[in-house]
UniProtKB/TrEMBL annotation:
InterPro entries: FAD-bd, FAD/NAD-bd_sf, Geranylgeranyl_reductase. It comes from the Bacteria. It comes from Eubacterium plexicaudatum ASF492. One of its GO terms (molecular function) is FAD binding. SUPFAM superfamilies: FAD/NAD(P)-binding domain. Residues 2-177 form the FAD-binding domain. This is FAD-binding domain-containing protein.
Length: 349
């Protein structure tokens, strides 16, 4: 029986797994995809994320996970009236698959047991522990996959936007935003050291964005209605051609993903009895999809609360909520600021 089973080997899950394993707890880290896993993401580490990595992992982000241009100088927002807002700060440009893989390896080096290609099917409370049904290949079984059960005192759900376990536990279906982005070979008259977000309603139902990764132009739009992806994407391409001299030579690839739709009040779900939530599963997500810093911090604080108050469930909740209050307040202020910048997000004021 493990002390903690963590579902989801992204920034939240890996950070939590590393801390708990270092403190001597028995940790099983489950990932439904084959590691290294792929995730559609801007891949920008903001200054706060860099500070958290230094604090939680005791070292800087390795060059092996970065892409060109390595240095990110901040974000430039264009609101629905065409006004620019510049937010200058130090950052790094990374590939999420490589970054997440590095985090997982750090958790494993600290003593966490990692099982990829394994799905958490369901979980059930049994007194003072949780029974989790998994489907995958156990390390000690050589022949194929199977459905089996593991038990732990706590389960930390860090699945991200999918949050299948959370949906089953809370019997709710979260609201999603669908993202669509392409990687293009071409040229454009914009500084590749910035991440650009466009909030004009004619370009998307949420936001549109541009950044550069290893000389590839990344252009994306986010929608509430998936049937409108092609319309908004074409509108965004036309906008970038008119105002920034975009010239496309060849499309390398395209991808779709989901992210939570944060609602007014920025509700946070900390968990249900012995099942805790962190990262996007809990509701932590900053504007323009910046979820890495919130995922790492919430995963770390959830792990600290479990480690410090392992035998006292109420105290775990109290410590987790208190330690993330500043983060939740910061998130609310950021969404409120976004609401003041553009009518697209006016409900968030």
């Amino acid at each position: 029986m493990y002390d903690v089973i963590i579902v989801g080997a992204g920034p939240a899950g890996s950070t939590a797994a590393k801390l708990l394993a270092e403190k001597g707890f028995g940790v099983l880290l489950i990932e439904k995809f084959k590691i290294p896993r792929y995730k559609s993401c801007s891949g920008i580490l903001i200054k706060k994320t860099l500070m958290l990595i230094d604090r939680y992992f005791g070292e800087s982000v390795p060059e092996s996970v970065m892409c060109e241009p390595v240095e990110n100088k901040g974000m430039i927002f264009t609101n629905d009236k065409g006004k620019e807002y510049r937010f200058e700060q130090e950052g790094r440009n990374i590939w999420r698959s490589s970054f997440d893989y590095w985090l997982v390896r750090k958790a494993e080096e600290s003593g966490a047991v990692v099982r990829d290609d394994t799905i958490a099917v369901s979980c059930e409370e049994k007194g003072n522990f949780v029974s989790v049904r998994l489907h995958g290949k156990k390390a000690d079984i050589k022949s194929g996959t199977q459905t089996y059960t593991e038990e732990a005192r706590y389960l930390l759900d860090c699945e991200g936007v999918a949050c299948v376990l959370k949906q089953k536990i809370m019997k709710t279906v979260p609201a999603y935003i669908t993202t669509y982005q392409t990687f293009q070979a071409g040229t454009i008259d914009l500084d590749p050291h910035y991440f650009y977000a466009y909030l004009q309603p004619e370009l998307s139902e949420y936001d549109a964005w541009f950044n550069v990764k290893d000389d590839l132009l990344v252009l994306g739009v986010a929608v509430k209605d998936t049937g409108k992806i092609r319309h908004f994407y074409n509108e965004f391409l036309g906008y970038m051609k008119r105002y920034h001299n975009l010239k496309i030579e060849e499309q390398i690839k395209s991808e779709k993903w989901l992210m939570p739709r944060i609602r007014p009040g920025c509700q946070i779900d900390y968990g249900v009895r012995h099942v805790f939530f962190a990262g996007e599963t809990a509701g932590f997500l900053n504007p323009m999809g910046e979820g890495i810093s919130a995922a790492m911090e919430s995963g770390y604080q959830a792990a600290c609360a479990i480690a410090d108050h392992f035998d006292y469930l109420d105290q775990v909740y109290a410590a987790y909520g208190q330690s993330t209050e500043n983060m939740r307040s910061y998130m609310q202020r950021q969404w409120s600021l976004t609401g003041e910048m553009a009518e697209t997000f006016q409900e968030m004021k």
